[in-house]
Known about the structure:
It is a single chain. The protein has 196 residues and is mainly alpha-helical. Helices cover 77% and strands 0% of the residues. The protein has three domains: 13-89, no CATH class; 99-152; 155-196, no CATH class.
Amino acid sequence: MSTQQPPQQLTASQIKEQEMYAQRNRDFEKFKTYTAYTFLLATPVLIALPPRKLDHLTVLLTGAFAISANHLTREKTGRSIVERIEAKIARPSMLRQLPSDRAEEVQGRLRAAREAQLREGGMPADEIEKWKGLQRKQEQGVVDRVWMGGEEKGWMERRLEEEKKALEEGKGYGDLIYEYIWDVWSWGKKDEEDDE
């Protein structure tokens, strides 16, 4: 037989102690927030001051900036920057869970219906192929698109062929590097001018 004990009544000193403990926690959280704002604003300034060099102090200041930004992001949104990056990169098993097999099936049917509608609408075959290419790019992951830079399969063979042709014409590697850099710098305007 167990007897129930009456709930323990808190004394005035215990209540005051709990309130003081809660106030200390609030003050500590406020201190962390103000410190994070201070580091977030002050570290780039301190890094930019002369002498500008990459040493242990710069690494420490960069780390303080990153930790401050991470803390403030977690405080404002509930998720830290690190958690957001992990969610974007996510493990392959987690990626495979979404979309479900049923969702992929429905998407396939919708794509087929769109293609049929485009063919019936009298759209030329080359336009349909362009549309399919856009669909494939949308299905491709963001990380893959950024990493590959819009290149498709066989890019390395094409690049080696271009390199071989340029070397046969008497150009050197310096010229090739210059052309690649100029192409990036001008956003491909050189190619567009040649086409016109």
